[in-house]
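Table S2 (continued). Query chain:
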Amino acid sequence: MQKIIGVVQARLGSTRLPYKMMLSLHGKPLIEWVVKRVQKSLALDDIIVAIPRGEDNDILAKYLKELNVKVFRGSENNVLNRFYEAVKDENATQIVRICADNPLIDGLEIDNLIEFYKNNPCDYAYNHIPKNNLYPDGLGAEIISFQLLKELNKIVKTQHHKEHCLSYITDNKEKYLIKTFDPLDSDLHHPELKFDVDTFDDYYKLAMKELNTDITSKEIVNLFLET
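Corresponding output:
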């Protein structure tokens, strides 16, 4: 029996854009955009938001509970361990890692990723960044098996790989089979576009567009191609 869990990794302690998860984008905090758009996925069996322990993230935890989404609180600096601890008792077979920096993430593209992973045997598949594919930056996610996540939690030693939790896989390409793919809709073939929010400039670009949480990826791409 397959069980696929989406884990949104979020925190308020960003150095480049502090408290960005609670920044209002067209009337809703960024974290609400992520949650609502991930919830449109039909292939995910459950969604958990994994955030750090500590007072700094209490506001985030409170808001997420108001959204009726599962919240797990773990290590601030060992993001990999927080990821693992969030799902270790959930009987998951596959885990989809979702970055909370992606307020325009598309539930359909999460489903396309899951379908690709099922039909193309590999250790790790992704469509969240335009690396060896034609995706815009910020519409997709990453997927691995729970067994691989469990293994990574045991073997990863460096702080860099603990903080950037699936980078151990991409930094050790000789050990793992990594796959990606292009958007099924050719209208989305725009790897030059960036929709994730790392800086105030990224946030400003999204704030100045006519966006809503139900907007499709094709509509998003068209909006950004207009300028």
